[in-house]
Amino acid sequence: MPETKVILLGTSHPHIFQRFKYLQESANIILLGYYDSDANVAQRMQEYAGCPCYSDPKSLIALPYDVALIHGRDPRRRTTVRVLPPVKGDSRAGDTVVFEVGWELHYLETVAFARRIIRESLLGAVTLARFHGGCPGGAGAEPWQSDPENLGGFFYSLGGHVVEIAVDLFGLPTQVISSIRKLPVQTPHRGFSWVPGLFDGRQMDPWHAIGTLVHEDIASAILEYEHFNVHLDFSAWEGSRYLRDWSVEIYGVQGSMRLNIDGPGSCLLLKEKMGQWVSGRNELFSKREVNLAEAFERQMESFFGRVENARTDEEFCDENMAEKLLRLYNALYESARLRKWVFLQEKMVMHI
Fold first, then answer.
1. 158 and 201 within one domain
2. Model confidence at 288, in pLDDT bands (50, 70, 90)?
3. How many domains does the chain have?
C-alpha cells in the first residue's frame, strides 16, 4: 500500500488527540509536520505529535503532502481550505479533492440505523421529527464554545453534530424560525463537567452560572419542509455527559422511532409487522452503548480510503454537507436576530 503524507494546519481542537492516535498507529501514513498559530499550543503539542513543529505555515504547506488536516482555532482557518495549493505528491485521488468535515457522529451505528429507517421508508410518510442535542453543564464555557468571532457558541460548535444528522436524513428545509438565547444571569451552580483548556483534563462538577456564556445558553428552531416539520432543541446546561441526552425522534403514519444517539433506550414502534420488525414496540441497541472512539476511527478509515481511491459504502461528510450546514446555520442565527421566518433558496437566504 502506498504511503500517504500528512500535514496538520492547526492543532488547537481537542479532537486532535484522537486524530494523532489514528495517524501514528497507521503503518502507511507519514506525519510530515504541524503548525499552530498559538505558540504555546505548538510547543506543548510536540509531546503528542511525533513529527516536527513548523513556525511558518508557508514552509509546512510547501512540503510534498497528500493530506492536510485542520484543527485550529485561528479565525484565519475559515479561509485556509481555499488557499491551500494543489497537492504536490502522488495524488491518488486523481484531480479530485477529498474533503471531510469532522462530524464523527455521522459514523455511529445508531445514526447509520436512522439513515436506513428513513431510506427504507419503514415509518411511511413522515409528518414530524425532533432532534435534541447540547452539552454537559459547564462545557458551554470551554474555549471552543467561547470564540467571540464565531457565529455562535455551543449550538454552533457542538450542535452541528446533531444538526448534521437532521440535514443528512432530510436535506435542507424551505424555511426556518428560531430562538437562540442568552438567558438571564442566574446563581452559580455545580455543572456536570468541562475541559478548561486543550491540555487540561476533564473536571467534574464545575461551578458555572447560566447566562454567563460568551454565546447562547439554549437554542430552539422549527424547520419547515414541504410535507413535514423538524424541531430542534438544544441546551448548554445538561445534567449528564455527552450523548446521554441526545436523541432523534421521527413520527410517520406507519410508526415512529425514538433513537437515543448513545444507543440504549431506543425503540421502533410499528403499526404492522415489517420484515424483521414486529408490530408494536421493537427495542433497539439494548445491549451496549455505542463507542464514540470507533466512530472517530471509522471516519478516518473512510476518509483515507477515499484518498486511496478505495471503494467505500460509507456515506461521508463532504464539502456538500459542509455547505448545507453553513447555509442552515446562517439562516437559523439570522432568524433569531430578526425574530422572523427566514426562507432558504438554492444559493441564498431571504427574510419573510
1. yes
2. confident
3. 2
Q: Are residues 305 and 339 in the same domain?
A: no
Domain assignment of residue 225, yes or no: yes
Q: Are residues 197 and 225 in the same domain?
A: yes
Q: CB 232: neighbour CB atoms within 10 A?
A: 23
User: Full-prediction pTM beyond 0.85?
Assistant: yes
Residues 248 and 311 in one domain: no
Predicted local confidence at residue 6, as pLDDT: 96
Q: Is the pLDDT of residue 161 over 80?
A: yes
Residue 89 has pLDDT above 70, yes or no: no
Report pLDDT for 83.
Answer: 47
The reply to whether 236 and 302 lie within a common domain is no
Average pLDDT over residues 229-247: 97
Higher local confidence (pLDDT), 97 or 161: 161
pLDDT of residue 99: 86
What is the pLDDT confidence band of residue 82, given thresholds at 50, 70 and 90?
very low
Question: Are residue 93 and residue 203 in the same domain, yes or no?
Answer: no
Pair 242, 303 in one domain: no
Show the domain range for 25: 1-103+292-317
In a domain, 233, yes or no: yes
